[in-house]
Design brief:
The complex is a heterodimer of chains A (525) and B (248). With 525 residues, chain A is α+β, with helices and mostly antiparallel strands. In chain A, 54% of the residues lie in helices and 15% in strands. The C terminus of chain A is likely disordered. Chain B is α/β, with parallel strands linked by helices. Chain B starts with a strand and ends with a helix. Classes of the chains: A alpha+beta (525), B alpha/beta (248). Chain A: It comes from Pelodictyon luteolum.
């Protein structure tokens, strides 16, 4: 509890203009003493989803140093020597606390250079009539490079009163920056958002989560179209990241958006005329199919470290060969899909697809009998049907729990999950969130089963095509090692299914779904 | 938290200069340090260019932690804060006498600061009053600066008598010689006579124009003239105190 107290961030009247710092503005006898003045080129980084910002952090690179800042206090949390490329992963950093912090933000998403600017930093000490320091004033201005030609697009002013000089410093602030408001808690975050906006960036501008507020009474046709428009916008937003191969999540989000779109078309029965919905669904399915081999490779490449940890050192060279081959193949597939994204064929698909989702005209009642029903009615009915089906199927799964049974269960779960997410905004969070959580626990079990089984099949195919040369033998041994571990995991997941399902198929979850689909509290007598 | 009082019945013995420099030296170790200026003349506050805020007075000082908190001020040095003196401290005694357990009052009020400060220094007014008694009870160590003169030694004896009469802990007291002039034979004789007496510190603080100039620098001597002979002596004295307080 010594020295400077909390920092006050001032919200200037005019966001861009840096305050004029002159002694003439101060009380008589007060002095300004400039202690630091420097210029630097700074770049801000974050993931495509702004995950650093979501955790109250900002990541900035200046010269050869990468720093992590706390967006509440403005303090530097960590810094590390690191020459930052246009995009990088947490794993690219040298071992240390900054790497750990960025890993916690996201282990798989790339940190992308979002904006670069010239920064002027100036710090003044304020001395009172006794020439006692009462605090410091810090002014930071952001300009587009080069500084000389571009006036600042954003400025920050902060006060650091020495202990016991808060009031005096606030008086000083009122003189230096008349009209500026002293920020409250979280004000730096808002200043940061405004400054980024002035630089042309929308903080938190991307999230693949569905955040539409649907109107329960609106015709479901209208709601379904807005869901489709949303998923389409997610597809489009991720195209560039796929082209540039920045990280694997662009393709993943792109594919999820397509699956969601298809799920809307398939699950909301009687909402679209079949002759329009059918071809649209087929067309979007064809696009998704082009991405599947690429996504499979991404999944393996992401598993690299885990696979390595499963195998003895002697089998690591085989693993390296295996991953090197996957990496090369991925590159080829990535290029060909990127070419497709720029092709007239894709453009034609988009035109057709957009024509479908932009057509807001209510379809003919004969072709789409449910189109004009209120959204809430269709949502409740569809969720109920999907949930009942999942329960019915789950109870029928045999004690052997065959592969086919579990694959089918996984698809049932996914369908229900998508429905819950589409219509989340129609329901109170205290009902819908636990329902999703219970379902997710079941999905985790099924997911690990299916992932293992898909990977086993893939490895088996690789093995089939391996020859009998020395290198191939080594590869075969590696694949064998991986398959043994995957098999064990798959069997564990299989064993756990009935337990996981009975946790989902209980009164508690049933009551939640009753509430969701009937709007009433479940009768448990 | 370690509480150290700079105390002397007699004035003008280098008490405030010692308090200011030693508090500064303590803060240099990176440990949060608070200097409480209990002298109504406010000399140590003045040395740090600090005056108390208008609203502060002795009544608030006795109300304890929260009120004290608001009035602590940062000095221009890291890890060193000060509770400035206010002219109304001259009334502290009267108010203490109205308190229920005056001797323990100060100790109790400061307990709450223990989380924030490793060292708390008291710069005490030169007299022997209820406030002094409260300081004695609240301090882990009582440093008594003495000019090597017979008069000083006499007041020191009076202090020891006071401790004996009131059954106070004499082992808290450490005396040291200040404003020492090597050329004066009386100084040398008195130092010779007392330096090995238990309770006396070995390090001497020389008489120095630099110390007097602290009123012009308005900063600790050790901060502005660390190479000055008196500054070096304060550093060695602080080391000696730190090592003897480790032994306690």
């Amino acid at each position: 509890m010594s020295g400077y107290q909390r920092t006050f961030f001032l919200k200037p009247v005019e966001a861009a203009a840096a305050p004029r710092m002159t002694e003439a503005l101060l009380q008589e006898g007060y002095r300004l003493r400039q202690s630091i003045s420097q210029r630097e080129t700074r770049s801000y980084y974050d993931t495509f989803e702004w995950q650093a910002f979501d955790k109250g952090l900002s990541v900035a690179s200046t010269g050869r140093v990468l720093s992590l800042y706390d967006l509440d206090s403005g303090c530097t949390l960590e810094r590390e020597r690191f020459i930052s490329p246009p995009s990088f992963f947490a794993a690219d950093l040298p071992l240390g606390p900054l790497r750990d912090r960025l890993f916690a933000v996201s282990p798989i998403r790339a940190f992308i250079r979002l904006i670069q600017m010239d920064v002027t930093l100036q710090t003044w000490k304020i001395l009172d009539r006794e020439e006692k320091t009462i605090g410091t004033v810090h002014v930071e201005s952001w300009s587009s490079a080069p500084l000389e030609q571009n006036p600042p697009f954003a400025s920050f002013m902060s006060l650091n009163p020495l202990r016991g000089y808060q009031e005096e410093m606030l008086e000083v602030a009122a003189l230096l920056a008349p009209g500026a408001a002293v920020g409250d808690e979280g004000s730096l975050r808002r200043l940061f958002i405004d400054a980024m906006a002035a630089g042309g960036l929308q903080v938190g501008g991307y999230s693949s989560k569905i955040d539409l507020a649907l109107d329960p009474e609106a015709p479901v046709h209208e709601s379904a179209l807005s869901l489709l428009r949303f998923t389409t916008s997610i597809m489009r937003l991720n195209e560039d990241g796929i082209r540039k191969s920045i990280d694997t999540e662009f393709l993943h989000d792109y594919r999820v958006a397509i699956r969601r779109a298809r799920s809307i078309l398939a699950q909301l029965k009687g909402v679209f005329p079949p002759e329009a919905a059918g071809p649209a669904s087929q067309a979007v399915k064809a696009v998704a199919a082009k991405t599947s081999p690429l996504r499979d490779l991404d999944v393996y490449l992401l598993e690299q470290d885990r696979f390595r940890s499963w195998l003895p050192l002697a089998l690591h060279p085989g693993l390296d060969t295996f991953f090197a081959a996957l990496g090369r193949r991925r590159k080829t597939l990535q290029r060909s899909f990127s070419t497709y994204l720029d092709s007239p064929e894709y453009e034609a698909f988009l035109n057709e697809w957009n024509a479908f989702i932009d057509d807001s005209l209510m379809p003919d009642a004969e072709l789409a009998p449910n189109a004009s029903l209120p959204t809430i009615t269709v949502a409740g009915r569809t969720i109920r049907k999907s949930w009942k089906k999942l329960i019915r199927h789950g109870r029928m799964v045999s004690s052997e729990t065959t592969d086919d049974e579990l694959h089918a269960m996984r698809i049932d779960c996914k369908k229900l999950r998508y429905l819950l997410e589409f219509f989340m905004s129609l329901y109170p969070a205290k009902t819908i969130m636990p329902a999703i959580r219970h379902l997710k626990e079941l999905q985790d079990n099924l997911g690990s089963f299916v992932d293992c089984s898909v990977q086993l099949r893939f490895l088996f195919d690789q093995l089939e095509s391996a020859g009998t040369r020395r290198n191939d033998m080594q590869l075969a041994a590696t694949l064998g090692g991986l398959m043994a571990v995957l098999h064990e995991r798959q069997e564990n997941a299989r064993k756990d299914f009935h337990k996981a399902f009975s946790r989902f198929d209980d009164d508690r979850t049933a009551e939640l779904f009753e509430q969701l689909t009937t709007g009433k509290t479940g009768d448990r007598q | 938290m370690k509480t150290i009082a700079l105390y002397s019945i007699k004035g003008g013995v280098g008490k405030t200069a010692s308090a200011v420099n030693m508090a500064y030296l303590a803060s240099l170790q990176g440990e949060p340090t608070l200097l409480c200026d209990l002298d109504s003349q406010g000399a140590s506050s003045y040395y740090f260019r600090i005056s108390a805020s208008r609203k502060y007075n002795s009544e608030k000082f006795l109300q304890g932690k929260n009120r004290i908190y608001e009035h602590i001020k940062g000095t221009d040095f890291d890890n060193l804060d000060i509770l400035p003196s206010d002219f109304s401290y001259r009334n502290l005694d009267i108010e203490l006498s109205e308190a229920k357990k005056p001797q323990k009052k100060l100790r109790k009020n400061l307990e709450a600061l223990a989380e924030d400060y490793r060292h708390v220094f008291f710069d005490c007014p030169p007299n022997l009053t209820l406030l002094s008694e409260s300081v004695f009870a609240a301090s882990d160590l009582i440093l008594v600066p003495l000019i090597p003169t017979t008069l000083s030694i006499r007041t020191y004896a009076q202090l020891l008598d006071f401790f004996n009469e009131h059954d106070l802990d004499r082992t808290k007291i450490r005396a040291f010689f200040t404003m020492v002039e090597k050329r004066k034979s009386m100084h040398a004789e008195i130092i010779e006579e007392h330096q090995s007496t238990p309770g006396f510190l070995h390090q001497l603080i020389p008489n120095s124009a630099e110390v007097e100039k602290m009123g012009i620098y308005r900063a600790p001597l050790n901060a502005v003239r660390p190479g000055a002979s008196a500054a070096k002596a304060y550093r060695l004295l602080w080391d000696e105190i730190a090592s003897c307080s480790r032994e306690r």
